[in-house]
C-alpha cells in the first residue's frame, strides 16, 4: 500500500516565510553530529533551514573564515 501525501493549508496566523526568533541554545558538540548525519543522508528537511542564520562567536567566525580561504581545492 502506498503512502498518501496530505497537504494542509497554513493556519490563518501563519504566513509563509515567517521567521521564528531563536530561543534554544545548543552546543556545537551536540549540533554537528546531527547535521552531519542529516547532510550525509540527504534529509530533505535540512534544506528547509538553509536560509536560517546562525550566530557564532567572533573567534569561531575568524577560524571559519581562515579555513574557507586556506582549504585545499579538490
What's the gist of this structure?
With 74 residues, the protein is mostly helical. Helices cover 35% and strands 0% of the residues.
Describe the structure in your own words.
This protein has 74 residues and is mainly alpha-helical. The chain is built from two helices and no strands. The longest helix has 13 residues, at 28-40. It is extended, with a radius of gyration of 18 Å. The termini are far apart. The model has no long low-confidence stretch (mean pLDDT 83).
* Overall pLDDT score: 83
Poorly predicted spans: none
Radius of gyration: 18 Å
Q: Could you give the distance between the termini? A: 44 Å
Element-by-element helix/strand order:
HH
Largest sheet, if any? none
Portion in helices: 25-40%
Strand fraction equals under 5%
Strand elements, count: 0
Q: Specify the overall morphology.
A: extended
Helices and strands in order:
Blueprint: H1 28-40, H2 58-70
Defining key terms:
mainly alpha; 74 residues; single chain; 2 helices
